[in-house]
Design goal:
It is found in: Cell membrane. It is a multi-pass membrane protein. This is ABC transporter permease. This protein has helices at 2-26, 29-45, 47-61, 67-99, 126-131, 174-179, 202-207, 249-255, 273-283, 294-338, 340-348, 353-383, 406-433, 436-442, and strands spanning 106-111, 122-123, 146-158, 164-172, 184-188, 197-201, 208-209, 221-224, 227-236, 244-248, 260-261, 263-267, 289-293, 387-391, 397-401. With 443 residues, it is an alpha+beta fold. Helix 10 packs parallel to helix 13 (406-433) and helix 12 packs antiparallel against helix 13 (406-433). The longest helix is centred in the C-terminal third of the chain and has 45 residues, at 294-338. The radius of gyration is 31 Å and the shape is elongated. The protein starts with a helix and ends with a helix.
Amino acid sequence: MSRARKWLGNAGVVLALIAGLAVWTMLPWFAVLALVVALVLWLLLTRNGRLTLEAARIGIASLPQRWGASSVIVVGIAGVVGVLVAMLAMGAGFEATLKQTGNDSTAIILRGGSQAETNSVITRDQVPLVSALAGIARGADGRPAVSPELSQVVNMVTRADHTDANAQLRGVGDAAWALRPQVKIVEGRRFEPGKRELVIGQGARKQYVDQQFNDLKPGTQIELANQVWTVVGFFASGDSHDSELWADAETLASTYRRTAYQSITVRLDGKDGFNKLKAAMAADPRLKLDVDTTRHYYAKQSEQLSGFLKVLGIVIGAIMAVGAVFGALNTMYAAVAGRAREIATMRAIGFRGLPVVVAVMLETMLLALIGGLIGGLIAWLVFNGYSVSTLGNNFSQVMFQFKVSPDLLWNGIKWALGIGLVGGLFPALRAARLPVTEALRAA
């Protein structure tokens, strides 16, 4: 009967622990701060709280004597937090890069049902029809702010291992520069219409070299489609365009024998410009096209990969967390066994079960916090701003930087404290249940 009652009690603790961890992971910072304030007030203003502080002080004072065992908790949790934050920072960086590319004042038009530019086709006779639609703003010259563009995937040699990788070559005209004022030439000049000249984004410049494995610079010649192209400048945009190569649209079309465009980017006329444009396009049966704001379009491009990286990071972090929990359990069980006489003595002089439980938990949570801070710091120092590339929805490389944000660090700390909670709870309960007379005799 007593064994069944004990089993049911442990099962209840496990269920309560699972529910508590689920709630803990969803708590915002201010709710956690409120819990910390409530705990501090309980420790300072109640008798049990003061007894807990005294018991915790004794346990923490003995940490240097068993630092080797305690470091298992710190190192294990630091590894979990470091890997978790790094994986999530990769997804956050990719998502931020694509979200920065668009805005609500411009729209992108693709063939109906197309998910990306590479599988979109817009015929040349559709361009003037689109230009005449309501909702499109006009430039200083009085013409519609419309930029028909080509998207061509080309092979470039990577700097890292000198293998071929897909790069996006965008064919544009003068309107593209006006529609994207964030794109600035930082070295050299723009390409001239009618010439096989390239301007290259700063991200692509870091990623690629020429066919002789030399760095890209003004005057570098690159062979594309059996034609020699000359690099005449480099631009910076702070978004996914940094990963692209730009050239004159008509020259690109003649080189690759392209008779159609892949997309049209337009500037919207006021806040209701998008709705007007969408309605006007739907009303014209000659236009089987879709329109979306550039902000929403590029945000959708990041959803699949960033979501995958988030799930992967959580899965890997959870697997590592299980190992860290077992390490914490072994360490704290050993600590409780080694301090059996000390704990029994405290129980004998009036320390009740609750102060003992909370004291052991505070000790474990302190080690978990140290591990979480170390793991977060390592992730920030090593990965924040680290540049990588991945294959985007246009089947071309997109350069982006890891982004270790305060939110990710905060999530890492919450994971660390959650591991500490699980790893310290059962040893703490064992300490509270330790029979006083048996512990004193064994000692």
